[in-house]
Amino acid sequence: MGRVAGDPSARSALVLGLCGLAVIVFWKKAPARLRHVPGPLAAVVVVAALAASTQADVRKLSVGALVDAVSLPTAESATALLTPHALGTALVFALIASAESLFGASAVDRMHTARCGGRTGARRWCWC
């Protein structure tokens, strides 16, 4: 905490972070038409506007660098997807996603069965 007190940049970042947390915490008390926007998204917008309007001395992300880093796929990059390493990685991701879906369906079954008596039919989902 001593570092934050002596560094103006860290102090600005701390204040902006606390403002973001305050927006998230108090977002439930916002007017109903504003609550269609998720609280974390509102916090990001508010904090970004605060940082820009006060010219806060904090690090900012350069979107131009992100756009330059993304490139469209080419024929060479498409053939790289057929390597055993890439196919194995895709298989692992698919298995993890299936397990996550089944765990979620199981949790919903437990909650839903207690209230309404229905089931999700997760076995059918897994084989689709």
UniProtKB/TrEMBL annotation:
GO CC annotation terms, alphabetical: membrane
Transmembrane annotation, as ranges: 12-27, 39-56, 86-105
A Pfam family this chain is assigned to: Sulfate_transp
Membrane topology: Multi-pass membrane protein
Domain SLC26A/SulP transporter as annotated: residue spans: 13-115
Keyword Cell wall biogenesis/degradation applies: no
Keyword Nucleus tagged: no
Keyword vocabulary terms for this entry: Membrane, Transmembrane, Transmembrane helix
Name under which the protein is recorded: Putative membrane protein
Species the sequence originates in: Saccharothrix espanaensis (strain ATCC 51144 / DSM 44229 / JCM 9112 / NBRC 15066 / NRRL 15764)
